[in-house]
Amino acid sequence: MSTPLEVRIDRAADGQLVLLAIGEIDASNVAHFAEALNAGTGGDAETLTVDLSGVEYLDSAAINALAPHAESLQIIANPVLMRVLMVSGLTELAKIRPATDT
């Protein structure tokens, strides 16, 4: 059974592309997430903001999907994900900051 995941790409008010993911990212749904990453980073050289503030869990499949695009990503992460992002080494490759409550 697939884990619930909502993914969409929007443009922020400043024109910046934003990939928003909500739910959990794991092997059962990572293909959908990877397709969105490829769509958001393909074509021009602009940076893609990946908003993971609504993601409560991700596994190594998600890290593997993010890693090839890391240098062109700005990631906003749910604070519970920060440890796994640091341990994976992704924080050394991509700009990552924890989401803040507003």
CATH topology grouping: Transcription Regulator spoIIAA
Mean pLDDT level: 92
* Regions with little confidence, pLDDT below 50 for 5+ residues: none
Total domain units: 1
Organism: Mycolicibacterium sphagni
Domain STAS: 14-102
Protein name: STAS domain-containing protein
Pfam families: STAS
Compose a concise summary of this entry:
This protein is α/β, with parallel strands linked by helices.
Describe the 3D structure.
The protein is an alpha/beta fold. It has one domain (5-98): Transcription Regulator spoIIAA, CATH 3.30.750. The protein is built from 4 helices and 5 strands. A 5-stranded mixed beta sheet has the order 1-2-3-4-5. β3 (48-58), α2 and β4 form a beta-alpha-beta unit. α1 (30-41) runs parallel beside α2. The longest helix has 12 residues, at 30-41. It starts with a strand and ends with a strand.
Give the tags:
102 residues, alpha/beta, Transcription Regulator spoIIAA, five-stranded mixed β-sheet, 4 helices, globular
Topology (SSEs and partners):
Layout: E1 5-11, E2 17-25, H1 30-41, E3 48-58, H2 60-66, E4 73-77, H3 82-88, H4 90-93, E5 95-98
Parallel strand pairs: 2-3, 3-4, 4-5
Antiparallel strand pairs: 1-2
